[in-house]
Design goal:
The protein has 17 helices and 16 strands. The chain has about 450 residues and is α/β, with parallel strands linked by helices. It has a 7-stranded mixed beta sheet. A 3-stranded parallel beta sheet has the order 2-1-14. Strands 3-16-15 form a 3-stranded antiparallel beta sheet. The radius of gyration is 21 Å and the shape is globular.
């Protein structure tokens, strides 16, 4: 069963706090063969409980506030990038070359939303930017051959596998052997003492400074959640790597966005790091180490940090250094095969690995901050989309009874969980935050602004 007991245990939480959680279940939310609705509900509820726990500690409350998870709010939020409208128009989500393709022996899934990944894909296949030419070349090659050739060229392609094939794959074995949430305390350094916060509205991350070094969806969902809860989140991107406009608008709520070249502006980055409380990175393992951004290097210069790392495939196994995205992980781990048919691969009803892992990452940061109030130390948390996929397809079980549930009306429209706001990007229709507990904030303190236009300084 994909329940909160397993997730809360993986986060190191006190099982007694699970009695504070109530869920409103709604039929029709995130329909799938796999237990996607249950996974989504669990991830958001665990995040809300971690926030309520930290909030209670900082506000001096006698009890942890009650948490209420609602399938309607969760389902709408897990589709937030698809529910977004900018001046009444839906942003483009996937590029033409990001899709499944027939191969000589099966299927392959490519990801080419970013220009540099599209160029690498075309270079590996030695074809022009033409869908028909790409399809013709792929139809003559094996899926696994394409997977390796595109990866070697710096692109992104994954062969479709069944759950059984992934379970036998060396990377599948490595991923399944890891915990859902990897937690590590690097030292006994003193963490910054967090000042008290007001109890209403309860903003448990007030005063925290978060360096956001993430892209696309899972990492930005995590940092968007921390911004909701009061953190000063500063997202940093390389000047030559703009984010997709729609994804930036969807995940930029509550944050500021700046550009910074780590190879050139090291002194400025060090100034930001010196005053940061949390560093969240979403690049492949080791990609930022050359800039001194490994957890150990960060702890050496800023003891007492919380370092949160997110990757597609995890640190271990032959794919530990590879790039990846939700759609590719679904293809590799057997999810696309399970949700599809012999004639056509399928997909989950949402990018649930991204969203679910994002809320779990935020929960892990919040729990690490709570642990720091007791024992200090530089805390490191790590999650991987492939490990979340392993949980979805082969869920863990717990021993604590399930949380209280209320049966609500069926989910037939996202309307009750949508909101509208005006921003510098235009008029936005967007999903409301699903993280809910007593006296929790109900919306973000600021809408997203244009990518990369904020100053790289703390407010």
């Amino acid at each position: 069963m994909t329940d909160i007991t397993y997730a809360w245990s993986a986060l190191g939480g006190d099982p007694a706090l699970l009695s504070r959680v109530t869920t409103v279940q709604r039929e029709g939310a995130l329909p799938a063969r796999l237990p996607v609705r249950e996974l989504a509900r669990t991830c958001v509820s665990a995040c809300a409980l971690a926030a309520a726990e930290l909030g209670a500690r900082r506000a001096g409350l006698a009890a942890v506030p009650a948490v209420r998870g609602d399938d309607g709010a969760v389902a709408t939020a897990f589709l937030s990038e698809r529910r977004l409208l900018v001046d009444g128009k839906a942003p483009v989500s996937f590029a033409p070359l990001s899709r499944f393709w027939r191969t000589a022996d099966g299927w392959v899934r490519t990801h080419a939303n970013y220009p540099h990944h599209r160029e690498s894909l075309l270079r590996a296949l030695d074809v022009p930017d033409d869908v028909e030419r790409v399809a013709s070349v792929l139809a003559e090659r094996s899926a696994h051959e394409v997977e390796e050739a595109v990866y070697a060229a710096g692109g992104l392609a994954v062969a479709l596998r069944t759950p059984e094939e992934w379970a036998a794959h060396e990377q599948g074995v490595a991923v399944a052997a890891r915990p859902l949430v990897e937690r590590e305390r690097l030292d006994k350094a003193h963490a910054r003492v967090l000042p008290p916060v007001a109890s209403a509205p309860l903003l448990p991350a007030t005063g925290l400074r978060v360096l956001d070094l993430t892209r696309v969806l899972a990492g930005p969902v995590a940092t968007r959640t921390l911004a909701l809860l009061g953190a000063d989140v500063l997202r940093l991107d390389a000047p030559d790597r703009p984010e997709e406009a729609g994804l930036h608008a969807d995940t930029g709520f509550g944050k500021r966005s700046a550009v910074l070249d780590l190879a050139v502006d090291r002194a400025l980055f060090e100034e930001l790091l010196a005053e940061a409380d949390v560093v969240v990175s979403g690049y492949r393992p080791g990609a930022l180490d050359r800039f001194g951004l490994s957890p150990e290097a960060l702890a050496g210069r800023r003891p007492g940090l919380v370092v949160a790392q997110l990757s597609a495939w995890g640190r271990h196994g032959p794919w530990g250094g590879r790039r990846g995205f939700d759609s590719l992980v679904q293809a590799a781990t057997g999810i696309a095969a399970t949700e599809g048919s012999p004639e056509q691969p399928g997909a989950l009803p949402a990018q649930a690995l991204d969203h679910g892992t994002g809320y779990l990452l935020a929960a892990a940061v919040l729990r690490a901050l709570t642990e720091q109030t007791r024992e200090g130390g530089t805390q490191v948390v790590r999650l991987a989309l492939a490990r979340t996929a392993s949980w979805l397809t082969r869920p863990g079980t717990g021993t604590v009874p399930a949380t209280d549930t209320v049966q609500g009306p069926a989910y037939d429209s996202p309307g009750p969980w949508l909101d509208e706001t005006t921003s510098r990007l235009g008029h936005l229709r967007h999903a409301r935050p699903p993280v809910a507990f007593t006296d929790a904030p109900t919306n973000w303190p600021r809408p997203p602004g244009p990518w990369g236009t904020d100053a790289p300084v703390w407010t």
